[in-house]
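User: I'm new to structure prediction. If I give you an amino acid sequence, what do you actually give back? Let's try with this one:
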Amino acid sequence: MRLRAVVLSFVAILVLASGAAAEQVGKALSIRTIVTGASGELKRADPVSRDEQLKTNNTGLGQFQFLDGTKLVLGPNSSIVVDKYVLGSGNTVQKLAINTTKGAFRWISGKSPSSAYEIATPVGTIGVRGTAVDLYVGDEVAMLVLLTGAVRWCLPNQQGDCVIVDRPCDFVIARGGAISAPERVSSAAATQFGSDAFPFLGNNKRLLPSFRLSRVNCGLGGKTREGSNRDTIPGPQREPKGGSQPQQPSRGQTLSDGPLQ
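Assistant: Good question. You get back a string of structure tokens that encode the predicted 3D arrangement of the chain. For your 261 residues, that looks like this:
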């Protein structure tokens, strides 16, 4: 009897641990071709869990929504990990952090405080405010195009070396230990890492309506596919320690939640 009690207790502990590890934080709203999670290939309405790695194949497209309304799109050949998730009150989160390793992404913030969100890349960490961004992560390089709101991008372990982007359709590039100054995105800029680096700017018809941002494409609709890997723009400029001076919001732009901290 004592042995049976020990076995049952052990099984109960394993069940509880498994449940904690599989804490649901969101779900898949749309899956095309192959998108995989911790348990294999995903389908529409499948849950997404904390610490889960999400990956797409070379034609994959996954559209996800977290419990606080935050939306995330994974383009082809993309991979992320839901790194941190702490649930707050009223379907908000105290912390939602994703770790991007490669590929093309679209992020649209939900209703939680901006301080709750963090997007990590191999070349720096992005803090967001009221924000929608398209992001490309490659080999030792990453590029971001701001769609709405504002972001602060800081180099790894160097919180003083940051760049703020607060004008929609500006982009920055992080590579080689530097972050470029914000510039207006162009077709040449958006395709310098390949025509699939920013697939949602060139064509958002594959996205669900709530992921399209009222047709925000920075004037590049149908153009990014016309570029080639040879398209280039000036390389990133190294910012002085302390980062570049924040730009003022463009006329008519409203930034909520106060200054970035």
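You can read the tokens as a compact description of the fold. Here is one thing that stands out. The CA atoms of residues 163 and 244 lie 5 Å apart.
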